[in-house]
Every structure is written in structure tokens, then in C-alpha cells.
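Predict structure. Chain length: 229.
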Amino acid sequence: MALLSDDERNELDLLRIENEALRTNIARLSNRLDKQELAASPTSSPSKNHPNDPDAMQELQSMMISIQMAKEEALKHGSNDSSREKLISDIHYLHSLLVKAREERKLMSGKIESLKTTVKLQKESYDKLQARRTHDKVIFVEMLKRERQNFEEKLVENDRKVLWFEQEMRKVGTWARDRQKDYNGAAGNLAKSIVDAKEETVVQANEYNLDLAAELESLRYEANELLSK
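Prediction complete.
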């Protein structure tokens, strides 16, 4: 294995330092993504740790650029040194982690957008149901008002009919009393007329009997006269 020059060793140390810094940033970014994934769940508040945070995207892009630069610097010095190969391997690993994190972030963003769409549709459905409920409530109130008005009109009509019936009953009662008076008067007059007729009949009968008796007596006298000759 060829010995490294002082410049190469210094550069390798810098790459190792950068490698550790990248590891630290990877861990911090991973925690941040985990928090965002948790915050993006349906039971969490959508206002916290929004997945489209521009600072996080910028930080991820910056780390990608740093890894690419470190990888290019490592490749310039060949692949004979095992430490350099390990560093390059670590860089490749970190790069794969960042790519995976970016893909997971993209997938999570898609899920969040899908959830947003679902929430939007549910909100629209709720708004429609709420509008229909309000509309039905207005119609129901109007129906109650109309039924109440019809009921009050029927009450007024029934009161009017009852008043008319009472007035008619009073008229019938008055008419019946008047007719009773007329009947009583007519009955009295009829009874008096009958009595008068009876009395007149008796007088006439008595007069007829007297006339008949006188006529019979006259006939008897004439008969006796004829018999005596």
C-alpha cells in the first residue's frame, strides 16, 4: 500500500470530518423526517411539521451536493488506500440513505396530498350535508308555519260556525216560542169556538125540539078533529 503524502492525509482527515458531519446531519434529518411522518398521520394536526418545509428541502439538497463533492474528491486520489475506500463506501452508504430518505419523503408527501384530497372531499361532503340540513330546516320551519296558520284558520272557521249555530238555535228557540204562543192562542180560540158552537147547537136543538113538539101537537089536534067527525 502506497504511503500518503501530508496533503493527502490532511485531505483524508477533512473527508473523515465531513463524513462524521454528514452522519450527524443524516441522523438529525432522519429524526426530523420521522417527526414529520408522525405529524402527517390522520390523528395528528396538519399544521405541525408540514412535509413541504422549504428549510428541510434546502438542507437535504445541500447535503446531496456535499456528498457528491466528497465522493468526487475521494475518487481523484485513486482506490489503493483501504481508509479511502472505506470513506468512499461510507459516502456511498450515506448517499443511499439520503436517496432513500428523499424517496420516503416524496412518498410521504404523496400520501399527505392524498390525505389532503380525502379531507377536502370529506369537507365538501360535510358542507353539502350541512347546507342540505340548513335547507331542510328552513323547509321544516315553513311547513310548521303553514300548518300552524291552517290550524288557526280552522279554529277561526270553527268559532264562526259555532257562533252561527248558536245564533240559529236562538232564532229557532224564538220561533218555537212564538209558534207555541200562536198554538196556545189558536187552541184557546178553538176551545171557545167549540164551546160556543156547543151552546149554539143546544139552543138550536131546543128550539127545533120545541118547534117539532108544537108541530106534533098541531098534527095530533087535527087528527083528533078528523076522527071526531
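Summary: Helices lie at 6-39, 54-76, 82-228.
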